[in-house]
Amino acid sequence: MATRTGTRASVSRRTGTKRGAARKARPASARAVADRAMKLAGVGSQAVLKATGRAWDEWLKVLDRAGAKSMAHKDIATLLSRKFSVPGWWCQMVTVGYEQARGLRAVNQTAQGYRANASKTVAVELDRLYAAWSDGRQRARWLPAAPIQVRRASEGKSMRITWDRTEDLDVNFFAKGDEKSLVQVQHGKLPNAASVARRKKFWSEALGRLKAQLEDA
Asked: What is the second-level CATH architecture of the domain 114-216?
């Protein structure tokens, strides 16, 4: 009888341990899901992880330890570049995301004003998508009378544009397969939050026209 009682106690202890471990694991799992879903500066955690080697939750901890809360925007970006070898454009994105997360900056606000982001996946090859931006005649069909001046372009990769003399437009292109590609637009140096909403609506409609033009062709 003593042996049976001991066996029951042992089983009970093992079962209790497993249940306790399961209860403790649930919050960690929920936190992991939340971390993966985190979105700062308009960019998801998985995209940041892929581009920089760290997800948002990791960058927040790293920059906290580095004393970034008390640093200027430029100094944080420099730290990311020099110490952590983060690519140029991503230095700005991680810096802005960190500042937003720590209450140092409003959503969509950067050191150079506010910005609006938009993107569209199109079922065409990358070179056709890029040409629809770089070729003035093609661009005029879906973006008529656009007040743009192309400052710099990297074939099939990116364009840096001045919009209406005072605003910035960064356009990046990515291949998503043999016959699918993605364009990401960042419209910067906007004066206020209201202009962000207007520009988001504008680019949503414009990229919709671009997609229709390319896919119908």
From this structure: 2-Layer Sandwich (3.30)
